[in-house]
Design a protein that fits this description.
Blueprint: H1 7-14, H2 24-39, H3 45-57, H4 61-68, H5 77-83, E1 102-108, E2 111-114, E3 119-129, E4 132-136, E5 141-142, E6 146-154, E7 157-162, E8 167-175, E9 178-182, E10 193-201, E11 204-209, H6 210-220
Helix pairs in contact: 2-3, 2-4, 2-5
Length: 221
């Protein structure tokens, strides 16, 4: 129809004067910066996931810059590219905050719960024996690109909530028990990895992202 505007025309009309379209390379560099900020503890996992989603959807450089404005200049894309640090640190490589954070969560004939702001160590152990452990990782900080959680559930339960934008690798054996992983769409390349290993014996392991957890609460209270 003559005179009608396409979606691209409407998008152009909303752009401020001087806005420049962002390229795929610029989006990838912004995401690399967010990855580094997450590792350094400047962003929690939920903030990281939301900003990566916004970066992938960004149409202009201004929109990308808004996602990085509260991060120090030394980890901004230009500085990161100069240092050659556009990817996650190599596994096993030293980092200033490795070895820090919570390394053990244990519940024996009782319960243990972690939520809110807390830092998860690069390698951590979660044990539930005739008890229950609940870990909310939504506002947690991580200490490495790949975080390994070794779980043991014996006649107990372990529940985890993870934010969107995080990749979960489940490598847990269940013997007369259950393991349940409910996550949304897979995150993009380079997302933080939570690797879960271990054993469930006559117990239960439940891992949900925030959306699945909310749906569970709405359904069962």
């Amino acid at each position: 129809m003559p005179g009608s505007m396409t979606d691209d025309d409407r998008e152009l009309a909303r752009l401020a004067p001087g806005d420049i379209r962002a390229s795929d390379i610029e989006r990838r560099r912004a995401i690399a910066t967010l990855q580094a900020a997450c590792i350094e503890g400047r962003l929690n996992l939920d903030e990281y996931g939301q900003r990566v989603s916004d970066a992938l959807a960004a149409r202009t450089r201004t929109q990308l810059d808004t996602l990085l404005v509260d991060l120090p200049v030394e980890i901004h894309p230009d500085a990161a590219a100069t240092r050659g640090s556009s990817n996650w640190p190599a596994r096993g490589a030293p980092a200033s905050n490795r070895g820090l954070g919570v390394a053990n969560t244990v519940a024996v004939l009782g319960s243990a719960q972690r939520s809110g702001f807390w830092r998860l160590a690069e390698r951590s152990r979660v044990v539930s024996v005739l008890g229950s452990c609940k870990l909310d990782l939504v506002s947690a900080r991580i200490s490495a690109a790949v975080t390994t959680l070794n779980v043991v559930s014996l006649l107990g339960s372990i529940d985890m909530i993870v934010p969107a934008g995080v990749e979960v690798e489940l490598e847990v054996q269940a013997v007369l028990g259950s393991r349940d992983l409910r996550m949304g769409p897979a995150p993009g390349p380079g997302a933080p990895v939570i690797r879960i290993t271990g054993m469930v014996i006559l117990g239960a392991l439940n891992i949900r992202d925030a959306a699945a957890q909310q749906a569970h609460v709405d359904a069962y209270g």
